[in-house]
Amino acid sequence: MCLVRDGSDWRADVNDIELAEGRILALHPPGTAGSDDRLEAAGMLAIPGLINAHFHSPDQLIRGSAPDLPLELWSLHSAAGRAGRTPREIELAVQLACIEMLRGGITTVLDHLRLSPDLDRDGLETAARAYHAGGMRAVIAPVLADRPVSATMPLSEADLDGADIAAYGARPTLPWREQIAIAEDFAACWTGRVGAAAGPSGPQRCSDELLVAANDLAARRGLVLHMHVLETRVQRAMGLQLYGRPMLAHLDALGLLTRRANLVHAVWLEEGDIARIAASGAAVVHNPVSNARLGSGTCALPAMLRAGVRVALGTDSACCNDAVNLIETMKWAALLPRLTSHEADWPLPARILSLATEGAADAIGLGGVTGALAAGLEADIALLRLNSPAFVPLHDPVRQLVQGENGAAIDTVLVSGRIVLRHGICTLLDEAAIWEEARALSARRLRDNSEVYRDAAALAAPIRRMRARLCGCVD
Q: What's the topology of domain 41-370+424-432?
């Protein structure tokens, strides 16, 4: 059984899928695609490979290590855990990501890749080669930033209360021109199944010169411009302090709100911002699980869809989600709006599945490449066992996939027609060896970074006071 798009809906058909040179050639009535080279999938549900439109691979090695805190406090822990990574740790984190995502039916990911202490071409190459070897389709957006973290939060003198946090994230970054040159060189070398995007961290982390240069790079190379925007109330306040106007209005004035732009999170919008996004053609990448995990707020998904905003779904990192499961993300995206919206505005499972497939492909620059079971597209396919709890009895395959499945039914995954997961096990990666090494490396990194963790913890008090002042809350 195949889930194929039928206008704005999905249709469950029994088909043979004919592949040639890594692409879908045609869908045929069962038993009519004449070929001796067959993958038997009777009793399976074939769906387009899912697309994770926002992710950070380095956090695979520190999952579970950051406590349940709001973003600005959580970041102290997550940044400390990432400090001092080796090339092998960069590679291993991507391998862990490939295993987890392929096991969950994710065939494509946009990795907003933060390399520290500096943006590093060798590190980008290491990650790209790891995705390629693992069999996934990936768009790597190197994180670009030229403002120290301490200058990206609206800390008052009262918040500081004599504390000196100037050293937080204050190590001099590469000049923005050098960062853009590295990102452009990487983009020139990686196209095809593993490609590139421009990835400013967020407006508050970047000078206007860097933002404009990243947008120019994206336009010149035909890339998407992928950046965190208005994830928290603190970021909203910082935008107003930096620019004297709302953050999206400032990005619009700089020329950054175009169809290339990915606005990740987009939780703390101003009046009129949804209409501004819709008019610009920019896409919002909705991360409902990490938004909830960090207490950041709720994206106005129904209003965005009603206004015609392009929307994709992302898991965010394994350190602020605790999983990299897009099926789980689909369920959260479908159900959270029901707490605050009229039933007429509830995004139904068919719409949500589209946001995780065709809509996500369009958002991250792969429209017409992947995202559907259709002739001419890459053969990125996930096969789920129908003889599984979520599908027995089977009445509505789309609803039961989006709201009832958790990834346990995924049996086989193909990327560009190549089997990269078979019977739930990756075919191109040694899962057991990777997991064993990851345990050892992660334990060593946490131990070696103990002083970094201690220094980070000392910075928490001013941030807590700032949050109490801005949010009217005490963590």
A: TIM Barrel (3.20.20)
